[in-house]
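ZP: hey, is the adenosine monophosphate complex queued? I don't see it on the tracker
AM: it wasn't, my bad. submitting now with these inputs:
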Amino acid sequence: MSTAYDPSNIFGKILRGEIPAHKVYEDEQTLAFMDVMPQGEGHTLVVPKAPARGLLDADPESLAALIRVVQKVGRAVKQAFQADGLTLFQYNEPAGGQTVFHLHFHLVPRHEGVPLKRHEGGMADQAVLAEHAARIRAALEA
Ligand code: AMP
């Protein structure tokens, strides 16, 4: 199996504007948008614009920028959903659970006693995702 970065992955397409996404934050190096199959309300993905398949092949400078945005968006996500906590996860390679081969962090706001839904469960309603993205953008602007 090749472990080279393949730009045809779905997040590469989102970064190039070839397919839509419910964006919540963007800067020169980073993009954050809603996961279409959320494991909890407000499930957000943060990706670097620089090509990297996963954590292990990423450029350290790009990773440093990414984690700053993970913290910034993480605060906003937690606030937007009045969550009790925040779960981060990040998978590498199929054996590590990865299905989209462009580095990304998952951010899921968590409430006491509410379990995570299954990874890649159902597609969320687009209108609901749009509303959740707006809530997170508002928290980022507050
Ligand atoms: P993984 O590579 O296992 O960390 O998971 C990839 C994640 O991307 C899953 O949680 C999917 O629900 C999510 N996903 C797949 N396609 C899209 C898309 N077009 N827009 C937003 N999220 C997506």
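AM: back. The chain has a mean pLDDT of 96.
ZP: great, adding it to the tracker
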